[in-house]
């Protein structure tokens, strides 16, 4: 793969990672409600999920999903259900005092990892996206392990790197504007965003 071709891949992956959607909402949720650490854990696990689909597409999973649309639709609906679950969970959460809030934040690392990976894994559109994207950059007959590894690492690094930046900027904003307490109104808005994203996913199937 030439440098110019690789830079083209980088540019497309950056635009894809930076586009707003469920992934951004999840990282922001854990960065704001939890900590920069939790936001970064969500970013890391999301990158793993995206990298999984990148590798799977090279192995033919994207084409397989196109041949079996039922499997594709099931994953899409599961992803929408997970987004709705996150929204409802926020709406039903009871207000907590500061000490309890800190305890919840410190113990939500596992949840951050789970949410970040689930949002990526339950989005089969990634497999189709990478199938279409990679077909523009490689010839299947000449695909080598080295080229495939470079492409997958590129996807993982860019996706993870972008959301790590999001988590860090969110933490800086919290400190700069003293936004350290959870606002009931903000929570409701975030919940509505998750539920709205779930509805959008279903309508776009």
Low-confidence stretches: none
Structural class of the secondary structure composition? mainly alpha
The gyration radius over C-alpha positions equals 18 Å
Q: What's the end-to-end separation, in Å?
A: 34 Å
Q: Explain this structure to me?
A:
This protein has ten helices and no strands. The longest helix is centred in the C-terminal third of the chain and has 32 residues, at 145-176. It is globular, with a radius of gyration of 18 Å. The protein is mostly helical and 205 residues long. α3 packs antiparallel against α9. The mean pLDDT is 84. It is found in: Cell membrane. This is LysE family translocator. It is a multi-pass membrane protein. Keywords: Cell membrane, Membrane, Transmembrane, Transmembrane helix. It holds the Pfam family LysE.
What is shown here, in short?
The protein is mainly alpha-helical and 205 residues long. Helices cover 81% and strands 0% of the residues. The protein has helices at residues 3-18, 22-33, 36-58, 61-67, 69-92, 98-106, 109-121, 125-134, 145-176, 184-203.
List keywords for this structure.
single chain, 205 residues, mainly alpha, 0% strand, globular
Fold topology:
Elements: H1 3-18, H2 22-33, H3 36-58, H4 61-67, H5 69-92, H6 98-106, H7 109-121, H8 125-134, H9 145-176, H10 184-203
Helix pairs in contact: 1-9, 2-3, 2-7, 2-9, 3-7, 3-8, 3-9, 4-8, 5-10
């Amino acid at each position: 793969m030439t440098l110019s071709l690789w830079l083209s891949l980088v540019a497309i992956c950056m635009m894809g990672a930076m586009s707003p959607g469920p992934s951004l909402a999840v990282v922001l949720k854990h960065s704001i409600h939890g900590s920069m650490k939790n936001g970064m854990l969500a970013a890391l696990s999301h990158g793993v999920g995206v990298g999984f689909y990148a590798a799977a597409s090279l192995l033919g999973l994207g084409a397989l999903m196109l041949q079996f649309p039922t499997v594709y639709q099931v994953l899409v609906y599961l992803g929408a259900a997970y987004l709705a679950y996150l929204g409802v969970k926020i709406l039903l959460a009871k207000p907590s005092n500061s000490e309890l809030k800190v305890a919840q934040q410190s113990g939500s690392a596992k949840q951050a990892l789970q949410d970040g990976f689930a949002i990526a894994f339950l989005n089969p559109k990634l497999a189709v996206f990478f199938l279409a994207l990679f077909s523009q950059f490689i010839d299947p007959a000449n695909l080598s392990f080295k080229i495939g590894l470079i492409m997958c690492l590129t996807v993982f690094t860019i996706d993870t790197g972008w959301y790590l930046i999001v988590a860090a900027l969110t933490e800086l904003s919290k400190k700069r504007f003293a936004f350290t307490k959870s606002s009931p109104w903000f929570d409701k808005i975030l919940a509505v965003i998750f539920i709205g994203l779930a509805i959008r996913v279903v309508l776009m199937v």
